[in-house]
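Sat 14:20. Reprocessing the chain from the morning session after the first attempt stalled halfway. Input below, unchanged.
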Amino acid sequence: MNHLKKCMIQCRNNGISINPKKCAFCVNSRVLLGHIVCEDGLLVDPRKINIVIDMPTLMSVIELKRFLGVPCFLLMIFQKVYR
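Finished this time. Tokens:
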């Protein structure tokens, strides 16, 4: 707990505010930006990849073209907007 106190003091001295509602101490793992941070490292949040895993299999070339066409179309739109 001494390290935590030193960290909090440094944050306060450098003008960094900490929201106690968003802090978690003495936990084994925590979800952060769509990943699970734990003592094993970074893991993918299963809730995020279930959408891809449960996606139906594409059965024809037309379905594949339709699926790939949407991101290509969006990329084209974004490139025009941000030029």
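The chain has three helices and three strands.
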